[in-house]
Structures are given as C-alpha cells and as structure tokens.
Design a protein that fits this description.
alpha+beta, GIY-YIG endonuclease, three-stranded antiparallel β-sheet, 5 helices, 3 strands, 23% strand, globular
C-alpha cells in the first residue's frame, strides 16, 4: 500500500509538511480544520506530494523536508516544477 509525503501552502504562505497512507482523507481533515497546526492557517492548498512504497521511507522523507536537510530553495523548485495535473487529482 503506498504512502504519501505532501506539502500544503497555507493562507499565511507557510508550508506544512505531512505524511499519510490516505492522502484524500488527510486533505479533507485539513480542509475541515481537524489538524491543529493548519486549522489556524486555512485555507491550505496542496502544492506537492510524493508516493512511497513503505511508511518508513515516507517518514524519513518527511523528516528531511522538515529538518532542513532539503533547503528551502530546493523545496520551492520542487513545488514549482510539480505537474499541476497531478494536483488536480486531489482538488
């Protein structure tokens, strides 16, 4: 079963990094304000996601995005180059 690392851009411009086994469900939770961090920064927009085979790999990738091993400039480039048609699947 695939797992996902995702990035939301919140209304205040901040980025939220998360991981989940069900991206559609998790995005619905964010939209409904059920995530404490993003509920104060609604609306949030999905701007990037990656699919991984294992939860362990997903967690490592999420941590690398959160803790600065992946530089902000590289993250912004990943977002800018991400195909919009893939994001449309979760709109």
């Amino acid at each position: 079963m695939p797992t996902y690392v995702y990035i939301l851009r919140c209304a205040d411009g901040r980025l939220y990094y998360g991981s989940t086994g069900d991206l559609s469900r998790r995005l619905a939770e964010h939209r409904e304000g059920l995530s404490r961090w993003t509920s104060a920064r609604l609306p949030g927009q999905l701007v990037y996601f990656e699919e991984h085979e294992t939860a362990a790999h997903t967690r490592r990738r999420e941590q690398s995005l959160k803790n600065g091993r992946t530089r902000r400039k590289a993250i912004e480039r990943m977002i800018a180059e991400f195909p919009p048609e893939k994001l449309a699947l979760f709109a």
